[in-house]
Amino acid sequence: MKISVITPTYNRKDTLGKLYNSILNNLQCDIEIEWLIMDDGSTDGTEEYIQKFKEEKKICIKYYKQENQGKMKAINNLVPYADSDFLVECDSDDYFTENAFKTIKNNCILKEKIYAYVFLKSNEKNEIIGNEFKSNNFKSKMFDLYYKQGINGDKALVYNTKIRKQYKYKIEEGENFSTEARLHHEIDEKYDVLCFNEIVMICKYQEDGYSKNIKNIFKKNPNGYFKFFEEMLKKDFSGVKWEKRIYIIKHYILFKYLSKQKMDLRKTSFVNKLLIFILYIPGIIKSYVKFK
Protein backbone atom coordinates (compact mmCIF):
# COMPACT_ATOMS: atom_id res chain seq x y z
CA MET A 1 0.00 0.00 0.00
CA LYS A 2 1.18 3.50 -0.82
CA ILE A 3 -0.25 6.68 0.73
CA SER A 4 0.12 10.29 -0.35
CA VAL A 5 -0.07 12.85 2.45
CA ILE A 6 -1.28 16.12 0.92
CA THR A 7 -0.38 19.29 2.84
CA PRO A 8 -1.15 22.87 1.80
CA THR A 9 0.83 25.33 3.91
CA TYR A 10 1.19 29.06 4.40
CA ASN A 11 3.64 30.43 6.98
CA ARG A 12 3.42 27.30 9.15
CA LYS A 13 7.13 26.62 9.59
CA ASP A 14 6.57 26.33 13.34
CA THR A 15 4.06 23.44 13.04
CA LEU A 16 5.35 21.44 10.05
CA GLY A 17 8.01 19.71 12.15
CA LYS A 18 5.39 18.02 14.30
CA LEU A 19 3.58 16.72 11.22
CA TYR A 20 6.85 15.49 9.72
CA ASN A 21 7.80 13.64 12.90
CA SER A 22 4.35 12.07 13.14
CA ILE A 23 4.81 10.64 9.63
CA LEU A 24 8.23 9.25 10.60
CA ASN A 25 6.71 7.65 13.71
CA ASN A 26 4.36 5.70 11.46
CA LEU A 27 6.96 4.20 9.15
CA GLN A 28 7.17 0.96 11.15
CA CYS A 29 3.84 -0.24 9.72
CA ASP A 30 5.46 -1.04 6.35
CA ILE A 31 3.51 1.40 4.17
CA GLU A 32 5.13 3.42 1.42
CA ILE A 33 4.65 7.12 2.11
CA GLU A 34 5.06 10.23 0.00
CA TRP A 35 4.54 13.69 1.47
CA LEU A 36 3.35 16.28 -1.04
CA ILE A 37 3.57 19.90 0.10
CA MET A 38 2.19 22.96 -1.66
CA ASP A 39 3.67 26.14 -0.23
CA ASP A 40 1.02 28.80 -0.81
CA GLY A 41 3.46 31.72 -0.97
CA SER A 42 5.02 31.46 2.52
CA THR A 43 7.44 34.17 3.64
CA ASP A 44 8.71 32.55 6.86
CA GLY A 45 11.46 30.35 5.43
CA THR A 46 9.26 27.30 4.88
CA GLU A 47 11.12 26.27 1.72
CA GLU A 48 14.50 26.12 3.47
CA TYR A 49 12.92 24.31 6.42
CA ILE A 50 11.42 21.60 4.19
CA GLN A 51 14.73 21.26 2.36
CA LYS A 52 16.29 20.06 5.63
CA PHE A 53 13.67 17.29 5.83
CA LYS A 54 14.37 16.30 2.23
CA GLU A 55 18.09 16.07 2.91
CA GLU A 56 17.43 13.51 5.65
CA LYS A 57 16.00 11.17 2.95
CA LYS A 58 13.77 9.33 5.41
CA ILE A 59 10.64 9.64 3.27
CA CYS A 60 9.81 10.84 -0.23
CA ILE A 61 8.99 14.56 -0.05
CA LYS A 62 7.71 16.50 -3.04
CA TYR A 63 7.72 20.25 -2.45
CA TYR A 64 5.99 22.78 -4.70
CA LYS A 65 5.43 26.50 -4.37
CA GLN A 66 2.81 28.84 -5.81
CA GLU A 67 1.79 32.45 -5.40
CA ASN A 68 -0.72 32.85 -2.57
CA GLN A 69 -4.08 31.53 -3.82
CA GLY A 70 -5.60 29.93 -0.74
CA LYS A 71 -5.78 26.44 0.73
CA MET A 72 -8.28 24.96 -1.73
CA LYS A 73 -6.43 26.01 -4.87
CA ALA A 74 -3.22 24.73 -3.29
CA ILE A 75 -4.82 21.31 -2.85
CA ASN A 76 -6.30 21.37 -6.36
CA ASN A 77 -2.84 22.05 -7.77
CA LEU A 78 -1.20 19.40 -5.60
CA VAL A 79 -3.50 16.38 -6.00
CA PRO A 80 -2.49 15.62 -9.63
CA TYR A 81 1.06 14.89 -8.44
CA ALA A 82 -0.08 12.11 -6.09
CA ASP A 83 1.20 8.66 -7.09
CA SER A 84 -0.40 6.26 -4.63
CA ASP A 85 -3.29 3.97 -3.75
CA PHE A 86 -4.72 6.31 -1.12
CA LEU A 87 -4.54 10.03 -0.42
CA VAL A 88 -5.11 11.89 2.83
CA GLU A 89 -5.23 15.68 3.20
CA CYS A 90 -3.51 16.87 6.36
CA ASP A 91 -3.30 20.57 7.22
CA SER A 92 0.10 21.90 8.23
CA ASP A 93 -1.08 22.47 11.82
CA ASP A 94 -2.43 18.90 12.20
CA TYR A 95 -0.50 15.66 12.68
CA PHE A 96 -1.01 11.90 12.79
CA THR A 97 -1.48 9.59 15.77
CA GLU A 98 1.24 7.02 16.44
CA ASN A 99 -0.80 4.17 14.92
CA ALA A 100 -2.57 6.16 12.21
CA PHE A 101 -1.09 4.41 9.18
CA LYS A 102 -1.44 0.98 10.78
CA THR A 103 -5.13 1.75 11.30
CA ILE A 104 -5.41 2.87 7.69
CA LYS A 105 -3.60 -0.23 6.46
CA ASN A 106 -5.91 -2.52 8.46
CA ASN A 107 -9.14 -0.92 7.25
CA CYS A 108 -8.62 0.56 3.79
CA ILE A 109 -8.98 -1.64 0.73
CA LEU A 110 -9.40 -0.37 -2.81
CA LYS A 111 -13.07 -0.86 -3.69
CA GLU A 112 -14.78 0.27 -6.87
CA LYS A 113 -17.64 2.17 -5.21
CA ILE A 114 -15.88 3.52 -2.10
CA TYR A 115 -14.25 6.92 -2.61
CA ALA A 116 -13.05 7.47 0.95
CA TYR A 117 -12.59 5.89 4.35
CA VAL A 118 -13.64 8.25 7.14
CA PHE A 119 -11.85 8.25 10.50
CA LEU A 120 -12.01 10.37 13.63
CA LYS A 121 -9.93 13.39 14.61
CA SER A 122 -9.13 14.47 18.15
CA ASN A 123 -7.65 17.50 19.87
CA GLU A 124 -4.37 17.36 21.77
CA LYS A 125 -6.23 16.24 24.91
CA ASN A 126 -7.36 13.12 23.04
CA GLU A 127 -10.95 14.38 22.98
CA ILE A 128 -12.82 13.36 19.83
CA ILE A 129 -13.80 16.28 17.62
CA GLY A 130 -17.54 16.06 17.13
CA ASN A 131 -19.05 12.64 17.73
CA GLU A 132 -18.56 9.00 16.73
CA PHE A 133 -20.22 6.97 14.00
CA LYS A 134 -22.97 4.54 14.99
CA SER A 135 -20.77 1.57 14.07
CA ASN A 136 -17.50 0.56 12.44
CA ASN A 137 -17.38 -0.24 8.74
CA PHE A 138 -20.51 1.88 8.35
CA LYS A 139 -21.34 2.73 4.72
CA SER A 140 -22.89 6.11 3.95
CA LYS A 141 -22.81 9.30 1.95
CA MET A 142 -21.08 12.31 3.51
CA PHE A 143 -24.29 14.34 3.12
CA ASP A 144 -26.26 11.67 4.96
CA LEU A 145 -23.70 11.46 7.77
CA TYR A 146 -23.99 15.13 8.68
CA TYR A 147 -27.61 15.86 7.80
CA LYS A 148 -29.40 12.55 8.46
CA GLN A 149 -27.20 10.55 10.86
CA GLY A 150 -26.44 13.45 13.21
CA ILE A 151 -22.65 13.34 12.83
CA ASN A 152 -20.75 16.56 13.54
CA GLY A 153 -17.16 17.75 13.77
CA ASP A 154 -14.18 17.45 11.44
CA LYS A 155 -13.23 13.97 10.25
CA ALA A 156 -10.16 12.56 8.51
CA LEU A 157 -10.82 11.20 5.02
CA VAL A 158 -8.52 8.71 3.32
CA TYR A 159 -9.43 8.93 -0.37
CA ASN A 160 -9.08 6.43 -3.16
CA THR A 161 -6.49 8.43 -5.12
CA LYS A 162 -7.80 7.39 -8.53
CA ILE A 163 -11.31 8.62 -7.70
CA ARG A 164 -10.14 11.74 -5.85
CA LYS A 165 -8.14 12.86 -8.88
CA GLN A 166 -11.37 13.09 -10.89
CA TYR A 167 -12.67 15.96 -8.73
CA LYS A 168 -11.56 19.43 -7.65
CA TYR A 169 -12.68 21.91 -5.05
CA LYS A 170 -15.01 24.33 -6.83
CA ILE A 171 -13.81 27.89 -6.33
CA GLU A 172 -15.95 30.76 -7.56
CA GLU A 173 -14.32 33.56 -9.52
CA GLY A 174 -12.66 36.14 -7.29
CA GLU A 175 -12.72 33.84 -4.24
CA ASN A 176 -10.16 31.46 -2.76
CA PHE A 177 -12.06 29.18 -0.38
CA SER A 178 -14.73 26.51 -0.56
CA THR A 179 -16.03 24.16 2.09
CA GLU A 180 -14.77 20.58 1.73
CA ALA A 181 -18.38 19.40 1.96
CA ARG A 182 -19.16 20.82 -1.49
CA LEU A 183 -16.62 18.42 -2.99
CA HIS A 184 -17.88 15.52 -0.90
CA HIS A 185 -21.49 16.06 -1.91
CA GLU A 186 -20.46 16.00 -5.56
CA ILE A 187 -18.58 12.71 -5.20
CA ASP A 188 -21.52 11.34 -3.16
CA GLU A 189 -23.54 11.28 -6.38
CA LYS A 190 -21.55 8.27 -7.64
CA TYR A 191 -19.70 6.78 -4.67
CA ASP A 192 -19.96 5.97 -0.95
CA VAL A 193 -17.73 6.25 2.12
CA LEU A 194 -16.95 3.74 4.88
CA CYS A 195 -16.65 5.03 8.45
CA PHE A 196 -14.54 3.84 11.37
CA ASN A 197 -14.40 4.93 15.01
CA GLU A 198 -10.61 5.13 15.07
CA ILE A 199 -8.63 8.34 15.69
CA VAL A 200 -5.92 8.87 13.07
CA MET A 201 -5.34 12.64 13.18
CA ILE A 202 -4.81 15.27 15.88
CA CYS A 203 -5.84 18.89 15.33
CA LYS A 204 -4.57 22.07 16.90
CA TYR A 205 -6.61 25.01 15.67
CA GLN A 206 -4.49 28.13 15.17
CA GLU A 207 -5.62 31.64 16.11
CA ASP A 208 -5.14 32.75 12.49
CA GLY A 209 -6.57 29.55 10.99
CA TYR A 210 -9.75 29.02 9.00
CA SER A 211 -11.82 27.61 11.87
CA LYS A 212 -11.33 30.63 14.13
CA ASN A 213 -11.85 33.18 11.36
CA ILE A 214 -14.95 31.74 9.77
CA LYS A 215 -16.86 35.07 9.77
CA ASN A 216 -14.22 36.74 7.59
CA ILE A 217 -14.12 33.68 5.34
CA PHE A 218 -17.89 33.93 4.86
CA LYS A 219 -17.59 37.60 3.89
CA LYS A 220 -14.75 36.99 1.43
CA ASN A 221 -16.24 33.87 -0.21
CA PRO A 222 -20.04 34.36 -0.26
CA ASN A 223 -20.64 33.11 -3.81
CA GLY A 224 -19.11 29.70 -3.20
CA TYR A 225 -21.10 29.23 -0.01
CA PHE A 226 -24.29 30.40 -1.70
CA LYS A 227 -23.77 27.82 -4.46
CA PHE A 228 -23.06 25.16 -1.83
CA PHE A 229 -26.32 25.73 0.05
CA GLU A 230 -28.22 26.12 -3.21
CA GLU A 231 -26.92 22.71 -4.28
CA MET A 232 -28.00 21.21 -0.96
CA LEU A 233 -31.55 22.50 -1.36
CA LYS A 234 -31.81 20.36 -4.52
CA LYS A 235 -31.02 17.16 -2.62
CA ASP A 236 -33.49 14.58 -1.33
CA PHE A 237 -34.44 15.78 2.14
CA SER A 238 -36.06 12.49 3.16
CA GLY A 239 -34.62 11.71 6.57
CA VAL A 240 -32.87 15.08 6.98
CA LYS A 241 -33.13 16.12 10.62
CA TRP A 242 -35.37 19.15 11.20
CA GLU A 243 -32.66 21.25 12.82
CA LYS A 244 -30.36 20.53 9.88
CA ARG A 245 -33.05 21.58 7.40
CA ILE A 246 -33.41 24.88 9.25
CA TYR A 247 -29.61 25.25 9.35
CA ILE A 248 -29.39 24.85 5.56
CA ILE A 249 -32.19 27.33 4.90
CA LYS A 250 -30.85 29.96 7.33
CA HIS A 251 -27.42 29.80 5.72
CA TYR A 252 -28.93 29.89 2.23
CA ILE A 253 -30.63 33.16 3.18
CA LEU A 254 -27.44 34.48 4.80
CA PHE A 255 -25.33 33.86 1.69
CA LYS A 256 -28.05 35.17 -0.60
CA TYR A 257 -27.67 38.42 1.38
CA LEU A 258 -23.85 38.39 1.29
CA SER A 259 -23.52 37.36 -2.36
CA LYS A 260 -26.50 39.36 -3.66
CA GLN A 261 -27.28 36.49 -6.03
CA LYS A 262 -30.78 35.62 -7.18
CA MET A 263 -32.54 32.64 -5.64
CA ASP A 264 -33.51 29.70 -7.82
CA LEU A 265 -35.96 27.46 -5.97
CA ARG A 266 -37.30 25.46 -8.88
CA LYS A 267 -35.66 22.20 -7.80
CA THR A 268 -36.30 22.27 -4.06
CA SER A 269 -39.31 20.92 -2.18
CA PHE A 270 -42.51 22.75 -1.28
CA VAL A 271 -41.61 22.51 2.42
CA ASN A 272 -38.25 24.18 1.80
CA LYS A 273 -39.86 26.92 -0.26
CA LEU A 274 -42.39 27.56 2.53
CA LEU A 275 -39.66 27.74 5.18
CA ILE A 276 -37.60 30.13 3.04
CA PHE A 277 -40.69 32.35 2.67
CA ILE A 278 -41.25 32.34 6.46
CA LEU A 279 -37.61 32.86 7.44
CA TYR A 280 -36.49 35.21 4.68
CA ILE A 281 -37.20 38.63 6.25
CA PRO A 282 -35.94 37.68 9.75
CA GLY A 283 -32.89 36.08 8.12
CA ILE A 284 -32.04 39.14 6.05
CA ILE A 285 -32.38 41.40 9.12
CA LYS A 286 -30.16 39.11 11.22
CA SER A 287 -27.58 38.91 8.41
CA TYR A 288 -27.52 42.70 8.10
CA VAL A 289 -26.98 43.16 11.84
CA LYS A 290 -24.23 40.52 11.98
CA PHE A 291 -22.33 41.53 8.85
CA LYS A 292 -23.00 45.26 8.42
A few lines on this structure:
This protein has 292 residues and is α/β, with parallel strands linked by helices. Helix content is 40%, strand content 20%.
State the CATH topology of the largest domain.
Answer: Spore Coat Polysaccharide Biosynthesis Protein SpsA, Chain A
Low-confidence stretches: none
Number of strands: 9
Mean pLDDT: 94
CATH class of the largest domain: Alpha Beta
Characterization of the model:
This protein has 292 residues and is an alpha/beta fold. It has two domains: 210 residues, Spore Coat Polysaccharide Biosynthesis Protein SpsA, Chain A; 71 residues, no CATH class. Strands 1, 2, 3, 4, 5, 6, 7, 8 and 9 form a nine-stranded mixed sheet that branches. The termini are far apart.
Topology:
Blueprint: E1 2-9, H1 13-24, E2 32-39, H2 46-56, E3 60-65, H3 71-78, E4 86-89, E5 94-96, H4 100-107, E6 114-122, E7 138-140, H5 142-147, E8 155-160, H6 161-164, H7 180-188, E9 192-203, H8 214-220, H9 222-233, H10 242-259, H11 270-291
Parallel strand pairs: 1-2, 1-4, 2-3, 6-9
Antiparallel strand pairs: 4-8, 5-9, 6-8, 7-9
Helix pairs in contact: 9-10, 10-11
